[in-house]
Amino acid sequence: MTRLFYGAAFIMFVTVFSVFLYFSIKAFSINPDTVTQAYSYPRHHIVLIPEEINNDYWRLVEKGARAAARDFGIALEYTGPKQADQEEHLKSINMAAAAKVDGILTQGLSEEQFTPLINKVVQKGIPVMTVDTDAAKSDRISYIGTDNYYAGILAGKALLADTEGEIKVGIITGKFDTNHQKLRVQGFKDAIREQNRVEIIAIEASQITRIQAAEKTYKILQEHPEINAFYGTSALDALGISEVLEYMGKSQETYVIGFDILPETLELLEAGKIEATVIQQPYEMGYKSIEAMVQVLEGKAVDSINHTETRVIRQGDLPLNRNEMIEAEVQ
Ligand code: BGC
Fold first, then answer.
1. How does pLDDT run across 59-116, given as a tens digit for each residue?
2. 55 Cβ inside 6 Å of ligand 1
3. With a 6 A CB cut-off, is 236 part of the ligand 1 pocket?
């Protein structure tokens, strides 16, 4: 009888204790699938390394990434060269890998320099994703950004649609040796080939700075005064081009198509000082790249290519819709 009593008491104790333990564990743990905000600790440490941290375009990517980092409980670090410099850029990637961060988001600027490093980092077990610029031959897990060749095609088609007669084009490209800039030029060349009234006369690199975009525009116009159209392939190029055209009194007679919708670019478009610009989605690139990295870190599959939207806008397309305004607001 006593044995039966102790037996029953023991079973009861074990049951009550197990129930208590189960609910305690449940109460003090976070289910990462259900919690999307207000984390008390970061789930992962992710680093975003662009080619130039203080560039307004990259501040927009950062802004999107920070919003996603808040939503997904990520510790996000934004670091890299102050001014575009590939050696510095590669060094930053190496340092992030050495610090054993959970994931790296960066540009795949060139196959020669970036692919071996990306592959080395991925082999170490740190996932790398490319943003804005792809190194398609590398082992990067995924690419999030513009289809840069297609963006170049769009720019070329816009120039064909917007102009008549003989067009002599000068191109200011961000850099000669980076994947996205090369693709934007190639797409443009392939698009204009359709009509032989359009010819590319000169191409110079701005090193993605506005000042060099202006210097190179001036140089091109000195050497080829017949040029009556410019194509700027990185965010600050059209600003430099337009400045020089104004200065030389050639703004009216010269067609300009640029890239991106930074506030000043929109002002130029509004004022009729440039004719068109190719819109990218830097905020969305930042947001989506964090989202994709979180998925990978939590064992889920992501598509290897995730293109963000690209289109050409002209003065008549202003004002932009709300989503596009987010992409244009630097602050
Ligand atoms: C490109 C970025 C580049 C920036 C430079 C943008 O159009 O997508 O890769 O860093 O221009 O201003």
1. 999 999 999 999 999 999 999 999 999 999 999 999 999 999 999 999 999 999 999 9
2. yes
3. yes
0.85 cut: is pTM over it? yes
Region of 87 on the Ramachandran plot (φ > 0 left; ψ -120 to 50 alpha; else beta): alpha
Q: Which token pair is 305? A: 């290519």
106 exposure class (CB count in 10 Å sphere: 0-12, 13-18, 19+) = buried
Distances (CA, A) of 92 to 71, 98, 137: 26, 10, 21
Closest CA to 312 of 304, 303, 320: 320
**238 Cα to the center of ligand 1, angstroms:** 12
Categorize the per-residue pLDDT at 18 as very low, low, confident or very high, splitting at 50, 70 and 90: low
- Per-residue pLDDT, 20: 42
**Beta-carbon contacts of residue 53 (< 8 Å; ≥ 6 apart):** 62, 78, 79, 80, 81, 82
Please report the atom of ligand 1 found closest to the CA of residue 282. 8
pLDDT band at 173 (very low <50, low <70, confident <90, very high): very high
- Tokens describing residue 150: 């297609």
pLDDT at position 34 is: 33
* pLDDT at 25 (0 to 100): 35
Q: Which domains does the chain have, with CATH numbers?
A: 45-145+282-307 (3.40.50.2300), 148-279 (3.40.50.2300)
What is the average pLDDT score of the chain? 91
Residue 243 contacts residue 273 (beta carbons within 8 Å): no
